[in-house]
Design goal:
With about 100 residues, this protein is mainly α. About 55% of the residues lie in helices and about 0% in strands. The termini are far apart.
Length: about 100
Amino acid sequence: MNSRLNLEVYDKMADSKNWAMFTETGNKRVQEVFEQSLKKDRGSSAKPYFTFASQAIDKLSKNKNFQEAMDSEVRRTLYNRIEYVLEKSNILEFGEYWDDHVW
C-alpha cells in the first residue's frame, strides 16, 4: 500500500459502491481503477496518479461491456475521489485540481 496516503480517507473513498456506471459490475471495475491508481506510490506529485487513472479508464471504456466509462460523470466521479484522497494526503498542492492534469 502507498505509505503517502491518508489510509482512513482512502478506505472511505474506496468503499464507495457508486461510480456512476450503469451496472454493479461496471462500478466494481471503476473502483478497481481507483484502487490501482492510488495503491502504488507514484511520488509526491499528483500528476502521475491522474495520468494512470486516465489511461486506465480509457482502456476500460474500450471494452464493449464498459463503454460508459468514457462518460463525463464517471470520469468526474473517479477523478474527484482521487483528488480528495490526494488532498487529504498532502500530495495535491494548494489550488491544484484534477482537471490540471486530465480532461
